[in-house]
Amino acid sequence: MTDRCADLGERELVRRITEILGIWEKDDCAVVEDGDRYLVWTTDILHRRADFPEIATGWQIGWMAVAVNLSDVAAMGAVPLGLLIAAGIPPETQVAFAEEIFRGMNDCALGYGTRILGGDLDSFDELTLSGTALGWVEKDLILRRRGARPGDLLCTTGTLGSAGAGLRAALEAEGRGDGSVDDPDLQALTRRLLLPSPRMEEGRALALSGGVTSMMDNSDGLALSLFDLSQAGGVGFLVQEEKIPIDPLVSKVAEDGDDALDLALYSGGDFELLFTLNPDRIDDAARGCDLAVIGTVLGEREISIDSGGPRRRLQPRGYQHMTRGEAGGGRDRR
Amino acid sequence: MTDRCADLGERELVRRITEILGIWEKDDCAVVEDGDRYLVWTTDILHRRADFPEIATGWQIGWMAVAVNLSDVAAMGAVPLGLLIAAGIPPETQVAFAEEIFRGMNDCALGYGTRILGGDLDSFDELTLSGTALGWVEKDLILRRRGARPGDLLCTTGTLGSAGAGLRAALEAEGRGDGSVDDPDLQALTRRLLLPSPRMEEGRALALSGGVTSMMDNSDGLALSLFDLSQAGGVGFLVQEEKIPIDPLVSKVAEDGDDALDLALYSGGDFELLFTLNPDRIDDAARGCDLAVIGTVLGEREISIDSGGPRRRLQPRGYQHMTRGEAGGGRDRR
Predict the structure, then answer these.
(1) Quick check: A332 and B122 CB within 8 A?
(2) Which of A52, A130, B100, B146 could form a disulfide with B58 if both were Cys (CB 3.0 to 4.6 A apart)?
(3) Total domain count for chain B?
């Protein structure tokens, strides 16, 4: 008997729900026809217990709630049109703290060329911020999770593992009870966790480059994102371990090289773009943004990593909401 | 010192937040330019404690989460394009109950000619459903909260007080501990509460009629909605008590006529459309949908009710989230 949602796990529950709703294609955003362009549209709900470490300031919490939604718009190659925020605020919250949250939201939206246009406010026991972002993209430029072809290059923007390492540093600070991170390197890591940078310019540049064949953000971690991309595109991946751009600061909290690799593979929250690229177009794409080629697209659905010795299969490991205790070092931050 | 959000109250907190975000106009939906039309866009967050009475089935909970968002689209005179739902589900929730919620959402969306296009799923302590709906409307047909002119007629669709009376019947059933409502009339009232009917066709017909000068839904109750309409339009209202279309079933739970009037004025959840109408165009509007003229628009900002004797000022009473214990008989159901 699997009667409770916790017994099913998030991904099986999502499968059943999308079947009920008749949603057959999964992308970072829903897609709506709008004349000669598409509207792309996403929602992400964050809450205190799972998404906001204790050391997060109000301003950072607000920033994060906007950034995670903009990251989904970026992943479609789209331009943002605006955001709405539904906020559940505990009534005992200090007004100044609540105002800081909305200043953080506003600053993040303005920083990426868009605005918060409205929302809803309610009184909740647990601080809850549910955002939704709207954007547009030309029909021939939209980037989806499907589209990768065998022989394409597998690429990522930025560096990986920072948010997972930052979370570890934050949890250690919480565990010590002082709630603060003093070391500048650890502070830099926790900033990557608390102030994610949605890759808006990069996403748009990659769409305009014409060479990208599929894309998503890596918010659930590289490994789970590869499984999502594999499922959507009917392809597999061979990742070259040495090419994964692990943030050098990750070594400050990782126990060893294997642990650093685990943080880069299995922890969420980096909000980089993971994409596949026509190898003939790599120059066009690289002109648009910094990217790292980390592997190749395979015709079979296997997802493996080449670490110099025999290939190893990657595990679909990462955070799943409905299955407690399986976090792979990262909180889910989609 | 007013340091906590609870001390400020919802409306003052909203005022401060909208100032931070630079939102100067409040309508049922945010409005985005889209070529020769507007996109209209809303979000509403509902949660177990405040919004879903114990007697509500999963299917009704899902229906409600979609209906409250569609009602905001209807209030702009718009056509829906789709919805997204972010759901926070307690992990111990029975899978069958969770599936029923999404079936209710799906049936409501399909019933009003639209679809749920995607969403987000997370594990929450409290069942939380945050919906967002997108729609479109021609630029010259959009209906906003501002626009009423002195001498216009004040009108409503449908009947009032049903949801407030239904809530009272539901709470009495919960208080008795059997959790069920057997009397057919009371069942009809609780259905009005649990299965709100967004006035999509009526909103669209009113927009197309060309005679409506301002509109909103009455989800916070008639009285608070009049204050919102007054503030947006810089006008006042004189309501004729005898013309308020109180649902005849309300008398089944109201103590007397005054109590029934209170339910019609101060309890939320009816999800009717409240609008002002050019008196020369009443025939055009009435061809489009059933409506009741309940008063007139005044040049001064006062909001009064004529009950036969001297005019009384209406109080801005209704549910405010952040101020516990001030509910006027209705849960907020925006």
Answers:
(1) yes
(2) B100
(3) 2
Closest CA to A222 of A240, A197, A248, A249: A240
ipTM of the complex: 0.93
| pLDDT tens column, B77-104 | 999 999 999 999 999 999 999 999 999 9
Q: Are residues A89 and A175 in the same domain?
A: no
Nearest Cα residue to B272 out of B157, B144, B112, B108 = B157
**CATH number of the domain encompassing residue B104:** 3.30.1330.10
The answer to whether the CB atoms of A47 and B124 lie below 8 A apart is: yes
Count contacts between A and B (CB, < 8 Å).
235
Partners of B83 on chain A (C-beta within 8 Å) are none
Q: Among A192-206, A291-305, B248-262, B304-318, which stretch is predicted with the lowest mean pLDDT?
A: B304-318
Are the beta carbons of A91 and B324 separated by less than 8 Å?
yes
Alpha carbon of A281: minimum distance to chain B alpha carbons (Å): 32
Among B107, B138, B169, the domain boundary falls at B138
Backbone angles phi, psi at B212, to 5 degrees: -85, 135
Q: Is A96 close to B3, i.e. CB distance below 8 A?
A: yes
Q: Are residues A133 and A163 in the same domain?
A: no
Measured between CA atoms, how close is B109 to chain A, in angstroms?
10
Question: Please, which residues bridge with residue A80 across strands?
Answer: A135
pLDDT band at A330 (very low <50, low <70, confident <90, very high): very low
> Chain B: nearest CA to A17, how far in angstroms?
7
* Residue that terminates a domain, selected from B138, B172, B191: B138
Element (H, E) at B285: helix B282-288
Same domain, B48 and B130: yes
Domain that holds residue B17: 5-138
Question: Which alpha helices (H) appear in chain A, and where do they start and end?
Answer: 5-8, 10-21, 48-51, 58-74, 95-111, 162-176, 184-194, 200-209, 222-233, 257-266, 282-288
Judge whether B59 and B97 are in contact, CB under 8 Å.
Answer: no
Q: Are residues B163 and B284 in the same domain?
A: yes
Best mutation target among A3, A11, A13, A94 (most B Cβ atoms within 10 Å) is A13
At A181 the pLDDT is 85
Q: Is the pLDDT of residue A30 over 70?
A: yes
Tell me what pLDDT residue B1 has: 55
**Is residue B320 one of the residues assigned to a domain?**
no
Looking at the fold, whether B76 and B109 belong to one and the same domain comes out as: yes
B130 and B189 belong to one structural domain: no
Cβ of A128 within 8 Å of Cβ of B125? The answer is: no
Judge if A51 and A15 occupy the same domain.
yes
Contacts with B13 from chain A: Cβ below 8 Å: 89, 95, 98, 121
